[in-house]
Amino acid sequence: MLGDYFALSFKNLKHRGIRSWLTLLGIFIGIAAVVALITLGNGLQAAVSAQFGVSSTEVITVQAGGLNSYGPPGSGVVNPLTVGDVEAIDKLSTVVRTIRRNLPSGRLEFNDRAVFGSAMSVPSGEDRDYSYEVLELEAEFGRLLKDGDRNRVMLGYNFYADSVGLEKSIKVGDKISLQGEALTVRDYEVIGISKKKGSLVFDNIVYMNEDPLEDLMGYGDDVDLIAVQVKSKDLMDKAKEDIEKLMRKRRGVKEGEEDFDVSTPQAMMATVNTVLGGVQAFIIIIASLSIIVGAIGIVNTMTTSVLERRKEIGIMKAIGATNQHVFMQFMIESGLMGLIGGAVGATIGMLIGIVGTAGIGSFIGSDIPLTINWILVFFSLVGSFIVGAVAGIAPAMQAAKQNPVDALRG
Amino acid sequence: MGDKKERKKSSIGGKKNKALGKIKCDKEIIRLTGVSKIYHMGDTTVRAVDGIDVCISEGDFVAIMGPSGSGKSTSMNLVGSLDMPSMGKILLDGEDISTLTESDLAQIRGKKIGFIFQNFNLIPNLTVKENVMLPMMFQGTDIYERAVTAEDLLRKVDLGDRMDHYPNQISGGQMQRVAIARALANDPEVILADEPTGNLDTKTGEKVMEFLQQLNKEGKTIIMVTHEPELAEAYAEKVYWLRDGKVEKTTHKKNGFKVEAEERALHRKHGWNGKKGNRKSRKGLDKKKLVKGKQAKKGGK
């Protein structure tokens, strides 16, 4: 019997005009938005994470000023971290190693043009390998920096991709000039281009060994960022507390008034998720509104349909349809309309998700695994059917209670 | 004859209940007793049907005849239990329809009565075959049986080659035959045809009527509502003549559609609405009809 209703409804819907289908736009947009959002979920997370420079490795980063300061880490900070802080943290029992990192800003000249940007210090020895691992840094062309590379730099991928404003692609072997402290300008040879990371920070950066960078910039003992390797994953929170305690003592600040920030990958991930959550909440609100608008559209179409098909209702009743038959017929027809809107929406949503994920993947230069959440698709279809059916209740009741004689008169 | 007299007397004399038991109507399927349908239009009330008594026996071919405005559409709705009477009682196969819920009534109606309408009333979105299958769906027949029965019925009305056409792809005569097949879908005891030839030309109309006659021969009870006396007398065994919401007279084929003398007397004595002019014109009409009826009968033979 239920199958009959569906078959009949399908036949009736086939003969519906475009007007009926337009009212489904709301459902269609709503479902498409939700499905696209969830399908894009992985991609979005990867994209946002890349911007934040979140690494999967268990590394705590310490920086002055906290995450709320603008600009690259350490810039514009009144009371910067020092080499002393690095050494003190290194002595903590939960810590394996600390890596000092400086990110000075400067001017780069090439092809008779200049751009402003940041450089990043790369430590020497074992710390170098660890750094590369943490940053997931690999060379696309040429090679990574080695100990003893004094007048050599490695550049982020965007210098090669020519998207930094130099109007010429920089290749391995090219010479660039960097302007340092007191307007001194030195020439460097490009020995490598990093693989694309999809981050506006890491793809636009100049990597230099620690000593030559300090020579050029003259930042002395100031440190912009300390990367801390913790003994084990389980000690992350403990290490974080230890570092915070130590730093409060060293900088003479009370708990709650920290002028520095100690963040774990988890904390950074949480920040990423907060950002994503905000975006998702917004999209879901828009989607819900569209679905409500769609539902009202269905109520409207179905009410019109009941009026238009009064005669048909009369015929059905004359040939033996009970009120329940008529009610079910119209409600299922309404549900089916919702379902069709939802199905089209889910298909378009998935396409957006697939294309979007591929797009983000090529932007951040890595393959993002595409996960199509079939359970979500199933529930959005069921949901759209239910929305349609619920929207159809009032019109269906109106249809069911038609008096057969009056209805037959049309 | 006697029972008819009784009935008329009773309805006129207001002794309906007492007379009820005396009305003989063999194997009755539908019985209307003192049925009225009153419509309220603003302050005025319209008695579309005013105290009619109708009895339909199994296997009858009955015509309900009347000019437009005579209340024949309303009485058809009542006879087909599509509508509830304002007064009086309607028994469908011995069951008082006013005691049934709307849904039960629909179910029983779907099973016992097949409708044929003047304007065919097929559902345009469904194919011919699906239209015929529809009444069976409401009775919960399984889909395979529905398809087989529908195909059989359509072949019976010579539409075996039009099953997958849509109503707008076939002619009026064909549509009416589809409607006949649909009316037969649940193998009902009664076929109720409302002006079945009203929208058809003479030739196709005849074919439709032949089908109805054939069905009657096969044992189906046929009730036909029409405004054409010729049609009524050409096919029906019994004709209820309606005027102004009342049964003016009942005639039988076996009597050559003559109004019995006693009944005539009654008519004269009581009148139906007390208007002389009306009665006169009615008499004139009657004679004309009788002649035509005879002719039709002759022609038929």
Question: So what's the overall shape of chain B?
Answer: globular
C-alpha end-to-end distance of chain B: 26 Å
Average of the residue pLDDT scores of chain A: 86
Number of strands of chain B: 10
Largest interface: A-B, 26 and 31 residues
* Shape label of chain A: elongated
Give the overall pLDDT of chain B as a whole number.
Answer: 80
Can you say what the CATH homologous superfamily of chain B is?
P-loop containing nucleotide triphosphate hydrolases
Q: What can you tell me about this protein's structure?
A:
The complex is a heterodimer of chains A (410) and B (301). Chain A has 2 domains: 2-51 and 269-409, no CATH class; 54-264, no CATH class. Chain A contains 13 helices and 13 strands. Chain A has helices at residues 2-14, 18-22, 25-52, 83-90, 126-135, 157-160, 210-217, 236-251, 265-308, 310-318, 323-364, 374-400, 404-409; strands at residues 59-64, 81-82, 95-101, 105-110, 113-122, 139-142, 152-155, 175-179, 185-194, 206-209, 222-223, 225-230, 260-263. Chain A has a 6-stranded mixed beta barrel. Chain A has a 4-stranded antiparallel beta sheet with strand order 3-12-1-13, with helices on both faces. The radius of gyration of chain A is 31 Å and the shape is elongated. The relative contact order of chain A is 0.19. Chain B is of the alpha/beta class and 301 residues long. Chain B has a single domain (57-82, 100-300), classed as Rossmann fold, CATH 3.40.50.300. Helices cover 44% and strands 23% of the residues of chain B. Chain B is built from 11 helices and 10 strands. In chain B, the strands form 2 sheets. A 6-stranded mixed beta sheet of chain B has the order 6-7-8-3-9-10, with helices on both faces. In chain B, strands 2-1-4-5 form a 4-stranded antiparallel beta sheet. In chain B, strand 4 and strand 5 (95-96) form a beta hairpin. In chain B, helix 9 (229-235) crosses helix 11 (276-300). The longest helix of chain B is centred in the C-terminal third of the chain and has 25 residues, at 276-300. Chain B is globular, with a radius of gyration of 20 Å. Residues 1-23 and 272-301 of chain B have low confidence and may be disordered. The chains are: A alpha+beta (410), B alpha/beta (301). At the A-B interface, helix 1, helix 10, helix 11 and helix 13 of A face helix 4 and helix 5 of B.
